[in-house]
# Entry
Amino acid sequence: MDPTPVRSGARRCCQIAAVALLVVCCGLIPVADGQTLYRWTDEKGVLHLSDSAPPKGTKFERQRLSPAAARVASKAEAKQAASKPESENGNESKRPARVVIKDKHVRQEGPSAREFSGTVENVGDVPAQGVYVGIRVTDTGQGDECVREDIDVNPSELSPGETGTFAAWFDNPCFLGEAKVDLTPGWQAKD
# Structure
């Protein structure tokens, strides 16, 4: 009897057994093309997307994604979270009131008279009350302060994003020479 067919059959049987063993082993190993992601928001309102489970007691969502989908999802969610206002991300902290001068105008009314006017805006997240614009005029030749006044803003209370106007007229010998003028907004945060 020729031994070749037996060896060929034994080889084929070993190959089939090896493939079967490989299939069984692959079934026991997690599939490499999938990834489990955990998504949660911490107590500070920061959105997390991680392949590690969140701290115990944290409410979270679990998703199974392919690695490519996980990369796309994490980039998209990070971009979306960054574009949302802090209050939508669960972070209720607000920027304090902050009033800025949007524009200002100085008009000469005579040899020693000037009119100052302009617009201010509250760029904070909290209303500002008692809003005014402080004007300080210094004679650059002598270095003396010759005008120190507060100009009322109308309205004097500005909600976030709201604007107000100011205007005042001053007649002072300080304006006859060179003078340095500083306009600075002032306000109080509303409680």
In short: The CA atoms of residues 82 and 116 lie 40 Å apart. The beta strands are 35-41, 47-50, 61-65, 99-108, 113-122, 128-139, 145-154, 163-171, 179-189. Residues 28-32 have pLDDT under 50 and may be disordered.
